[in-house]
Amino acid sequence: MSRSDSIGAQHMTAGRMTVRRIQFRFPDRLGGIWNTARPQFSHIVNSGSLAMPYLEPYLIETMRQARAKTADPALIAEIDLYVGQEAAHFRQHQQFNRRLADLGYESVPKMEAVLKADYQSFARHRSFTFNLAYAEGFEAMALAIGHMLVEDRAYLFGDGEPTVSSLILWHFVEEIEHKCATYDVFKALDGRYLWRIYGLLFATVHIMARARQGYRALLIEDGLWSNWRSRLALYRLLLRIFGRLTPRLLRILKPGYDPRSVPDPAWAISWWQQYAHGAKDLSELDMTKIGEPAPVARTTEGAFQ
Ligand SMILES: [Fe+2]
Ligand SMILES: [Fe+2]
User: What is the model's pLDDT at position 280?
Assistant: First the structure.
């Protein structure tokens, strides 16, 4: 791709990205197992959510440092939109995580302390190159996770509490939307293949190890770790998730990997279009219709079809 093509593509990406301030109002009755048909998935998601108020500010700080190192207006615009989206994500996760803490899970503050220490340490003691590679590695993995979640949404969220499910799906349609941001920054400021792969492997192993530590602790608190039926359900779920995730992670290893070559899922495109046309209540999707080709909000069913 020539430099002019590359800048054109960056404009396209920056042009389509939007910072959306969506408020998710969790019901009073909300429990830690917000999908009673899939308690193990509930705690995998809860564990991932605990990382967001530490991980995403760390990504933002890395991208702010990157912003100071470039004069490319297209790249600066892309960074600003990326930062806006990530800031909105972690604020909503903070609210959700407070609800989990209020339910009395002791592992919530414990995991928060571990995650805070991890990301403070990376920010303070690792090089800018490492932090940039971590950011790109994490975002490449988040794109793969976003595709997996959208593809398997009926199975994973079909029986879920609508607000939590809608929070996660909002977050990941935006992860899909800003798929090029850290890649473009990494390419512009560094671009070394081995650093990109090291960042991917480090970020993937780190976040998955912390996620496992978190969901294990949460499942123990709910008496679902030693229970063999629950453990079997967990392993079956992990097989299903990694069956869909692994081919998507492997393609990132190719030297010529470019997130632009990963087509966006139709459901995510439809989500963006509905928001652009004024759908206000994507914070509460109709979970009975989550498997349909386009998102259906609970209160404006069919209005944007
Ligand atoms: Fe995010
Ligand atoms: Fe992201």
Answer: 67
